[in-house]
């Protein structure tokens, strides 16, 4: 046995001692309260994204609206899955997911958008995805090896947010008069 590993007897004693903490053990290296706050901010972000995409889905009109609206609906579903993953992780860590609609938009990293123009909808969604990409990249770096499970949750979300941004950029390039993504 190597020097850096805790002996089995000590591991078992510690596990019994604070059984109410669930998966959070002495080996947990992050600031738990700050991690819960960050998770709840990300939860708010994902919920606002769901609402924005749903609104855009239902209000998209015009010649190119059908494929764009379908993309909005797909993204809304995936953002809801993200929210569910974040809420699950919050509960695993002993926290409470914050779904309070009164403070949702103030806690979200991305804004809600009520654009009526199809091109503006796509642009606003692309901007929101870019905000999420930047935010989740920073969160992954901040977590490092202090909470690898939460970091992996954010890494999974990050990969899908990058895919969403790429999808939206592609839509802009195909809509005449949009000026592309730039």
UniProtKB/TrEMBL annotation:
Domain Ferritin-like diiron: 29-179
Cofactor(s) essential for the protein: heme b
Keywords annotated in UniProt: Iron, Iron storage
PROSITE patterns registered for this protein in UniProt: FERRITIN_LIKE
UniProt keyword Iron, yes or no: yes
Superkingdom, natural source: Bacteria
SUPFAM superfamilies: Ferritin-like
Assembly description: Homooligomer of 24 subunits, arranged as 12 dimers, that are packed together to form an approximately spherical molecule with a central cavity, in which large amounts of iron can be deposited.
Protein name: Bacterioferritin
Organism: Streptacidiphilus alkalitolerans
